[in-house]
Write a structure and sequence with these properties.
This is 7767_t:CDS:1. With 141 residues, the protein is mainly β. The protein has a single domain (10-140), classed as OB fold (Dihydrolipoamide Acetyltransferase, E2P), CATH 2.40.50. Helices cover 13% and strands 45% of the residues. The protein has helices at 62-65, 127-140, and strands at residues 10-17, 22-24, 27-38, 43-53, 71-80, 85-95, 110-113, 116-119. A five-stranded mixed β-barrel has the order 1-3-4-6-5. A hairpin with a 4-residue loop joins strand 5 and strand 6 (85-95). The longest helix has 14 residues, at 127-140.
């Protein structure tokens, strides 16, 4: 986690979208995933970074545009949590790796209200994943 390609106190990170966007009241979150190779230990390392943004204003269309799982470039303030790295929003940009991405589009925005989960996607998430995400949200606030 400490080998992220960042500039001091301000993160610039490009990676694939790992999980769908999760909206919780005035905050929205998603995970970015990057696979890299560590030449010292000769193995592949998967980095997972949480990105927090406000889904209103100029970020209002982000959740809709991230449904096709694009490559995402994010910038913002880097925050180190206990077991996770988080980037607080500044800029979100995305590009689609190919034009066939629309073929694989799935509804993936989930809304949370208090302790109850209301999912807009057809597949329900496990309660373990919801608890983990809510715990990460509390660490960021």
């Amino acid at each position: 986690m400490y080998d992220l390609p960042v500039s001091p106190a301000f993160s610039i990170f490009t990676a694939f979208l790992q999980d769908p966007v999760t909206i919780d009241n005035d905050d929205a979150f998603f995970y970015l995933k990057r696979d890299s190779y560590d030449g010292v230990i000769l193995s592949k390392i998967t980095m997972s970074v949480l990105y927090k943004y406000n889904p209103r204003g100029h970020h209002s269309n982000v959740a809709d545009n991230l449904r096709r799982f694009p490559i995402v470039l994010v910038t913002g303030e880097l925050v180190m949590l206990k077991r996770l790295v988080c980037i607080l929003s500044n800029i979100i940009e995305w590009t689609y790796p190919n034009q066939l991405a629309k073929k694989f589009e799935v509804p993936n925005v989930r809304y949370y209200k208090g302790k109850e989960k209301m999912a807009t996607n057809a597949q329900e998430e496990s309660s373990l994943r919801v608890k983990r995400l809510k715990n990460n949200i509390e660490n960021v606030k």
